[in-house]
Amino acid sequence: MFVQNLQENVKYSYDYDHDVLYIYLGEPKVSYDDEAAPGVFIRFSEEDEVITGIVIMDYKKRDIESIKKFIPVNINFHMINEQIH
Q: Taking CA 70 as the corner, what is the angle to CA 14 and CA 73, rounded to the nearest 5 degrees?
């Protein structure tokens, strides 16, 4: 796994063994997951319902354009894909 800065307060890590992409937004907070689509989880702060992250399972097997409609923030997946492929 590795972590790469995308922009200020946005980071990601990719688990090559399990094909899972983790996107972190802002400072770490106690959060819960809501499954927006099968295998796509949006993480929300328990304190104030702010989005704190996104988890995408089976990332390399997915069509990212079809997943974007379930993700309520703009993420540069092109840059992520260049780094992990």
A: 70
| Average pLDDT of every residue of the chain | 88
- Helix (H) or strand (E) run with residue 42 in it: strand 40-45
The Cα-based distances of 2 to 11, 22, 37 in angstroms read 10, 10, 25
How far is the C-alpha of 52 from the C-alpha of 78, rounded, in Å?
21
Per DSSP, the chain holds a count of helices (H) and strands (E) of 2, 6
**Under 8 Å between Cβ of 39 and 58:** yes
Please give the Cα distance from 39 to 60 (Å, whole number).
12
pTM comes to: 0.87
